[in-house]
Amino acid sequence: MLYFILMEMGEKQEKSGKKKTSGSKKKNKTWLLIVAVVLGILIGLGIFFQKKILELIKPGQKTTVPLGEQKEKEDFKFDWALWEDASGFAFEYPRDLKVDTHPDDETNYSFLAITSSERQGKIDIYCNDTKYKTVEEWLTKESLVKQGSFLDTKVASVSGKRVAIGNGRELTAFIDWDEVIYVIDKQSEEEVEFWQQVYSRIVSSFKLIPLENESEADFSEWLGGFETSGMDVVEAVEVIE
Predict the structure, then answer these.
(1) Are residues 43 and 87 in the same domain?
(2) DSSP letters of the chain?
(3) What integer pLDDT is reported at residue 67 of this predicted model?
């Protein structure tokens, strides 16, 4: 009888030991799972903050251009037309641009505003009597241009000045024998490349022509009064920085 009692007690202790061992294994697995989850969260946070730090160190990567690579220039495909003005000058301009002649203007011999229906900016061309004897005097005394950067140039074979005054604005001017000033005024803060090409073509093609009812002989004699020698000609395509 005692034998059977001892055997039963032994079996109970053995079962109890197995239960304890099984519970210990479950606890170990739980801790391993918790540690793995925590490590995964820490690694994920590390990668996230590393990317943020790199973005702060290297801003604007999306807008940078690889070294040596240039932005392709837009091909405007201008259809050039000739404008001949009754005030005695002519030039080439894109046919699809609008030319406002300001018919109510009484200050100038001619006042043209060249604009586009699709692009911001404009070019004004005007001529009028001036108080300045020379274009050099205009450059040093006219408030609009005296603080600008300038180049010597020739327009219509006449000595002139080309002045940049900032924000995409540039003027080319010369004064004729009768003290009439001709000004080509480009204003292109937005569409800089478009208006620069138009402006350069107008300046390079600009010429004086006879007035209405003026003979070619009289015009040639009058034109001979200009001093055009001793000038370093600046190409019309040059852009003043």
Answers:
(1) no
(2) -HHHHHHHHHHHHHHHHHHHHHHHHHHHHHHHHHHHHHHHHHHHHHHHHHHHHHHHHSTTGGG---TT--PPPP-----EEEEEETTTEEEEEETTSEEE--TT--SSSEEEEEE-SSSS-EEEEEEEE-S-SSHHHHHHH-TTTTTSEEEEEEETTEEEEEEEEETTEEEEEEE-TTSEEEEEEEE-SSSHHHHHHHHHHHHHH-EE-PPTT--HHHHHHHHTTS---S--PPPTT----
(3) 43
